[in-house]
Structures are given as structure tokens and as C-alpha cells.
Design goal:
Layout: H1 2-12, E1 18-22, E2 32-36, H2 59-70, E3 78-81, E4 89-92, E5 96-100, H3 107-126, H4 134-147, H5 153-158, H6 167-181, H7 190-201
Parallel strand pairs: 3-5
Antiparallel strand pairs: 1-2, 4-5
Helix pairs in contact: 2-3, 3-4, 4-6, 4-7, 6-7
């Protein structure tokens, strides 16, 4: 597995200038991931909890990658490195997907983070996504919260949100608004942007036919 190999190399090969981590032989995507010396900084805390790292290569993740290839886009390179801000991960067009390995978390959160950011990557590929357009950003944040598992009842329960009725929609709106509030240009109208994009984007499950389990 990509992440299992990375964890071992973080310990054994910090002196290397560059390291190439190959995908598992059973993975049809033969992309190689390049990690620089800076990426191999040893974290103070581990983002990985044994033995559940197979969550990272579930069918839904592979589906997103395969659909991006069909659209003519390369799936994002997935890197693990320490992050300056408290975050589980983020996606940057042109740079790829970063998983923050200095934040201790659980495998299900790692899985959800990868799917959340992969949705952003897919949306960037599928649409001419304007990162300065708050409606565009609201749409991809709605989809990412809805499709990644961020708002499953078990996740909400862990956050102390105990209500059952309409919990999925409430959670999706709340998390999308929170994400937009972190964007300087969208902070002031975060809630309004989410409401404007809600009807169309909350029922857009592409490339899936329904919300992945």
C-alpha cells in the first residue's frame, strides 16, 4: 500500500534526497509518487493507526481516479508531510493532495479526508472551477462534505451532534459554510453562497449514482 510504504520509509530513508514510492501491485493505476527530502520530515505524531490503512484505497477512491482519467486529467499526487496549520489535509490544483502527518487521527478520518479532497480534485477536472467564485467553492464544498463520509451519523455522533432528523443535510451545510469562512473572499457571504448552491450541488453525486457507503 502507498501509505504503508511511506510510513516505513519515513523511518528508514530520511537521508535520501528523493524517494519514489510505487503503488501496490494490485492497483491498476501505475502512477509513481515522488517525495522530496523535505516531504520525508519525521513527524512528532503519527497520522496512521495500524492496521487499517487499506481504507486509503477503497473502491470509491479508485473510482474517482478512474473517472478523472476518463475526463483527461491525471489523478492528483498524494503526499504526506507535516502541515503548518491544524488540518487533516488539503488539495491544491497543480500541486496535488496533501495529507498532514503531524496530526494524530483515526483511519476513518484519514479515509474521509482523502475522499473529501479527491472530490475537490474531481470537480476541478470536471468543471472550469473558479477558486475566486464563492458559489463555485460552495458547490464543491457541499459535494465534498456530502460524498466523503464527513457527515455520516457515526461521525456526527463523535462530534457530539446527537440529533437524528435531517442530520445529513444539517452537517453538510454546516461544514461547507465553515470551509468557506476560511476563504478570505468568501468569509462574509459564506452562508449565502452555500444556500445559493445547495439545491443543485447537494443532489449531485457525480461520478457516483448515490452517496458512497
Amino acid at each position: 500500500m502507498i501509505f504503508e510504504h511511506l510510513k516505513k520509509r519515513l523511518i528508514k530513508e530520511q537521508s535520501l534526497n528523493n524517494t519514489i514510492i510505487e503503488n501496490d501491485e494490485n492497483n491498476n493505476n501505475d502512477k509513481k509518487l515522488l517525495f522530496s527530502k523535505d516531504d520525508l520530515l519525521k513527524p512528532t505524531k503519527s497520522a496512521f493507526i495500524e492496521p487499517n490503512n487499506k481504507e486509503c484505497e477503497r473502491v470509491v477512491t479508485k473510482t474517482l481516479m478512474e473517472e478523472m482519467v476518463k475526463l483527461g486529467c491525471l489523478p492528483p499526487v498524494i503526499k504526506c508531510k507535516p502541515c503548518k496549520e491544524e488540518s487533516f489535509g488539503y488539495f491544491e490544483p497543480g500541486s496535488g493532495l496533501t495529507i498532514c502527518n503531524n496530526i494524530k487521527t483515526y483511519s476513518v478520518t484519514l479515509r474521509n479526508t482523502i475522499l473529501h479532497e479527491m472530490i475537490h480534485a474531481y470537480d476541478t477536472c470536471r468543471y472550469d472551477l473558479d477558486t475566486d467564485n464563492c458559489i463555485h467553492l460552495a458547490c464543491t464544498e457541499i459535494r465534498a462534505a456530502n460524498l466523503s463520509g464527513d457527515c455520516k451519523f457515526s461521525q456526527e455522533l463523535g462530534r457530539g451532534n446527537l440529533h437524528i432528523y435531517n442530520h445529513m443535510a444539517d452537517c453538510t451545510k454546516r461544514r461547507a459554510i465553515k470551509s468557506l469562512e476560511a476563504h478570505p473572499k468568501c468569509k462574509a457571504n459564506a452562508e449565502l453562497s452555500v444556500l445559493k448552491a445547495w439545491e443543485k450541488c447537494n443532489t449531485d453525486y457525480s461520478p457516483f449514482t448515490t452517496i458512497p457507503k
